Amino acid sequence: MSRARPHRSLLACALIAHVAAAQDLYVDGANGDDSNDGLSMATAWKTIQKSFDSASPGSTVWISEGTYVEHPVLHVSGLPGQPITFQNEPGELVSIDGDPILGSTIVTIEDRSHIVIRGLRIQNLIMPDAVGLLIRATPSGGVEDVRIARCPIRWINWTSDPLAIPGPDDNAQPLIVYGEGLDSANAISDLRLDSLNVYENITGFSEAISIDGNVNGFVVNECDVHDNTNIGILAAGGYGVSANVTVDRARNGNITKNRCWNNVSSYATSGGIYLDGAQGVLLMYNRCWGNGYGIEIGCEQDGATEACYVLDNELRSNLIAGLAIGGYDTGTTGVVAQCWVRNNTFFNNDLLNTGSGEVYITKAVNCFFRNNLFSCGEQGVLLTKEDIAPQSNIQFDFDLWHAPDVDPADVEVNWGTSTLTGFGSYLVTSGWDAHGLYADPCFVDPSPIDPDLSISSNSPAIDAGQNGGGFPGETDIVASPRVVNDTVDIGAYEFQIPLTLAGTDRETLGVFPNPTENLIHLSTALPLFHIDLQDVHGSLVRTWRGD
């Protein structure tokens, strides 16, 4: 929405009013007292709950170092542009520890809006249905503009035994977002989860981060989710969280730049990231390894997971497959539809040699794969497409396939009830990958432990992808330009020609950063009189003359 520019004096008054309304408040578990006013360290409150009862819009609550054994419930909200912020004092470790005597949820945010929680560690609750952080909108309530940032969440367990086999009623949820709202106005909206570290939780049949029900507009960004006993990040729908089926799904979300590893279930195949009944979700720039599936796009309930995008991700060394896509339950109508999988790098998945390959396909309709780089494991299985309906209009093209030390005539594809042997057989039978390749991708370092999956200058993936259909400003997984000279590489990494300086003494002329994107710094002791700037293909961009 565009607005007229305000008069300068009016803007100054607005800024002064905002500053005057802001307030610093303090919590000190060691020395505070809840009968204080909380306005200074000397008059700090003792408990986080007191601040959850008393903070006002625009205020920041500074919490001193310590372990707070309490289960605070938020009873205040901020205002648009004036959120209430609860955060640790800089450099100080603040932990909120659970206690089963206090209940099953450590931190509760219900029907509250314009809230920031930053730098608070939530941990240590072992009991059935344990919850670390709950964000909930009730049927007639709503949640808007909540940000959780830089919060470790750990040791939220349904049992103390990490080897225990859970049943369907055995659950623990480190972070759950639960939208029960009955219409769009009662949704959880404008939710951001940034730079969380969710790890070492025994979750049973639940997930480390779960976003379910009437949630419209969310971001999960730059989180580390690892070493949990089930799915890492879930966006779900169709489970009756909202009684209104038309809004009962997580939708319009971005799951970006996360690292998900070692999220492994003892009773099922768990994904690092799982979309189940969600709509309009973008999965981009994520790295997933050591999980059951790297990413799963599924649909367990009636309906569809639809209009989702899997772009520019690195999926490597997962136990079963890099990506599973499609509904699988023959007892439901659940299907995956209208999804794109583009410019991802798959490497050495199916470590358990199940025969699944890099991609596992079940009930999927109108799903399109483009510009993906698949480097398969030693068994040489490219993919599996199960014989399960519905399946229609699934397309692969402009992909690069390779299995180290496996001849292209010997690779396999599980095609329904048949096994296709040889890359040529795959092309003919499937009708896919008319522009596909079977070739060594020439990774910089393809070692199985901590590989560098960027591509070398001799990679056949360079300029071999299909251009078009990208998002404005889209880059590759390391933020390099995706489209270079109107061409696109295959895989998550776009090859970048290193910046070179011709005819100069490197000791007297420095260029940084190198490689660079939009900003170049030159440092020299020489009187420069002529500088030519060329792009990575040698074309002249700009010339400077003079000092």
How would you describe what is shown here?
With 547 residues, this protein is mainly β. 5% of the residues lie in helices and 40% in strands. The chain contains three helices and 45 strands. The strands form six sheets. Strands 1, 2, 4, 7, 10, 13, 16, 19, 22, 25, 26, 29, 32 and 35 form a 14-stranded parallel sheet that branches. The chain has a 13-stranded parallel sheet with strand order 3-5-8-11-14-17-20-23-27-30-33-36-39, with no helix packed on it. Strand 1, helix 2 (48-54) and strand 2 (59-63) form a beta-alpha-beta unit.
Overall structural class, as computed from helix and strand content, comes to: mainly beta
* Count of beta strands: 45
* Residue share in helix: under 10%
Task: Provide the low-confidence segments as ranges.
Answer: 1-21
* CA-based gyration radius: 26 Å
What is the number of helical segments per DSSP (H or I, 4+ residues)? 3
SSE inventory with pairings:
Blueprint: H1 8-21, E1 23-27, H2 48-54, E2 59-63, E3 66-69, E4 84-88, E5 94-97, E6 105-110, E7 115-118, E8 120-126, E9 130-137, E10 143-149, E11 152-157, E12 172-179, E13 188-194, E14 197-199, E15 209-213, E16 215-221, E17 224-226, E18 233-236, E19 250-256, E20 259-261, E21 271-276, E22 279-284, E23 287-289, E24 293-298, E25 304-306, E26 309-311, E27 314-316, E28 321-325, E29 335-342, E30 345-347, E31 359-361, E32 364-370, E33 373-375, E34 381-385, E35 391-397, E36 400-402, E37 412-415, E38 418-421, H3 423-430, E39 437-438, E40 443-445, E41 452-455, E42 509-512, E43 521-524, E44 530-534, E45 540-545
Parallel strand pairs: 1-2, 2-4, 3-5, 4-7, 5-8, 6-9, 7-10, 8-11, 9-12, 10-13, 11-14, 12-15, 13-16, 14-17, 15-18, 16-19, 17-20, 18-21, 19-22, 20-23, 21-24, 22-26, 23-27, 24-28, 25-29, 26-29, 27-30, 28-31, 29-32, 30-33, 31-34, 32-35, 33-36, 34-37, 36-39
Antiparallel strand pairs: 37-38, 40-41, 42-43, 44-45
